[in-house]
Amino acid sequence: MKKIASVIVDVPVLQIDRPFDFLIPDDLCDHLEKGMRVIVPFGNRQVQGFVVNIKEETEVVELKEIIEPMDIEPVLNPELLELGEYIANETLCLKISAYQVMLPPALKAKYDKFLTLDDEKRMDQFPSELKKLFNQKKKVNWKDAEEVVSTSYLYRQARLGLFHVSYEIKDRGNKKKSIYFTPSLNKQDFLKKFEQLKITAPKQKQVINYYLENFGPSTVKQVESFVSNPRPTLNQLEKKGLLKKEEYEEYRDPYKHREFKQTMPLPLTEEQEKVIKPILNSMDQVSHQVFLLHGVTGSGKTEVYLQSIDRVIKKGKEAIVLVPEISLTPQMVERFKGRFGNNVAVLHSGLSLGEKYDEWRKIQRKEVQVVVGARSAIFAPFENIGIIIIDEEHETSYKQEDSPRYHAREVAIWRGKTHRCPVILGSATPSLETYARAQKGVYQLLTMAKRMNQSHLPVVEIVDMREELKAGNRSMFSTQLVEKMKDRIEKSEQIVLMLNRRGYSSFIMCRDCGYVMKCPNCDISLTYHKVTNQVKCHYCGFEARTPNVCPECGSNHIRFFGTGTQKVEEELGKILPEARVIRMDVDTTSRKGSHEKLLTAFQEQRADILLGTQMIAKGLDFPNITLVGVLSADSSLHLPDFRSSEKTFQLLTQVSGRAGRHKLPGEVFVQTYTPEHYSVQFAKQHDYLQFYRYEMIVRKRGQYPPFHYLALIHVSHENLQYTYSVAEKISSFLRNQLSNGTIVLGPAASPIIKIKNRYRYQCLVKYKVEPNLIPTFKKIIEHFHEEQLKKNLTISIDLNPYSMM
Predict the structure, then answer these.
(1) Are 283 and 238 contacting, i.e. CB atoms less than 8 angstroms apart?
(2) 463 - beta bridge partners?
(3) How many Cα neighbours within 13 Å face the side chain of 692?
(4) Which pick of 404, 443, 699, 794 has the fewest CB atoms within 10 Å?
């Protein structure tokens, strides 16, 4: 009986977003499984695809055969295949995008495109350009061909049948292999053969003695510590039959040179005992429950996570732990590796392509039971999950901004239901939507209101920068903060300063004519970076030299306005020349391993001040930090985003929580121009509940989440008029199709109307229950599909958006 594979092919086009049937060759019938990647013929090319089903019947009359499998074992298990369907439906993305997002980048296929001749004898019919191009070769890389002739010329000649276009898949998932020399006989026979051969060469004798002491496989490097330049000698002994050369696969271990100090479980406090009990009960009963662990900063949430995971491991199950930012990962890795050793895999964007691939394979091969990582770690190919933990669950980085626009929390809950296991959402400042669900009883609320070690929450002082200006202080540091910093440095205590902006200054302006230097591709001012003396756009990457005179009026009164981390570092050097400063922002942490190096240096007290953007606001736990300064609390407060107050409150509470976590008491200074704002006042009091109640009134009045769901439709194109007309058509169609209770706002220009030379308009949909929503969005996608391909139009739909920009 012939077997047929249903394959989702890697052609990201709407009409092809369905399974295609292919015949499984006889020699593959017993080997091919669901979840494997295969290479299939598709049109005039070969493409990668995912096998989503294997069956014995099909309605297709003429079936093409699968060319070859790309995997020995399935890369997606049955649960992940099902999850891909769920993500495609929930986020309105293509199935191929949903499957690819679950894999490490090394497994995402890249194609090389070639021009291939069927018959060299036809070369005499070729135009001179093609003769020169092929030059007796049967195969030419498409990119090389484009350097000689135009793309349209190549397509025309291909249509005439002079050559055909072929595609070859490059698999980037290369395994690291190491050469080992190992004795070819057992120890007794090895010694006997050595004596028979009567070896006299001193170096060969040295190597033999090494193997008699270290009997087993050794690399050239290992032998080198005993014998200098051993490779020729090892090869000679291989020829004599004493040694054999073997190739072993090796993992690229990002933590190979790190020793993790083993830690033991700590005795739990009364509060920790209280919150861990229902979690352990849920595990014992194999029941799915979502817990919101609301614990103040420093209350010991991590120990609750560790002891819950310990129970999971003892039951022979697996655990997934998500952390929001790469900067949090070094300390988390230390805690988890310290507790569970090599039973932990780590997945985050700071790893190299090969390291990520190897960590993923450890999970796939069931060599580890715990994975710690950023958003994408939620797709770890575990098959027996016992717990899923999302730390700092309020973080917006858990939502993917481009397609597929999934939220890790929703995926975690889906997987938790499938595996009938608990999901823990932990935070000192939960998102309003999560806390509202806990209040309604959808999630179970677990509260930890006290810090560990009986330490108190730090005292927060609000500094009104308007008063500082009146007193003649034009510096970015208030008088009180400077005094406190000097005091801490004298006491050899440490300071954290947070400014939520990188670069040197936020914009350049001419004081004579008011000209502000803007990006030519985006509707945004350029940021000045002093180190390179350049202005940069943080949206499209445009860079230019900083002008000495105004490009508009020629005046030399061109000045830098606003404050960035580089400028703060420079000012610190003037007012506290003795202070050692570590700056952490995107510019200083772009190199691999830089987060860890900077944080380790601070932990080892090789610096007095840690200055950074919001990446330093959470997760850090250093005993010597006694002072935190927030230099501009307002920067996130006045954005055109209904969540701006919530984000400000969360950021201030989180960064305040870095101070006084151990024996030394902590102080926090929040500098602001709007000290009366409720998010600043409630952050001062560490009062999440009061903030929640106040913000819920604001949200209800504005018909925003958690009272309404949102959907945001973005339209972008190079032509402004066309962009607006498409957005207008979409909003009219939505008003006609959706029920009366649903609110459609727009079209309106996006807060940043132009990015990368494309104009942007948006429509916002607010709804409570809307059965027609998904079908209506699918109709919009189908209707504009041709225009998206032909006119370079982009329409993106984001359900429950986290960015309104």
Answers:
(1) no
(2) 671
(3) 18
(4) 794
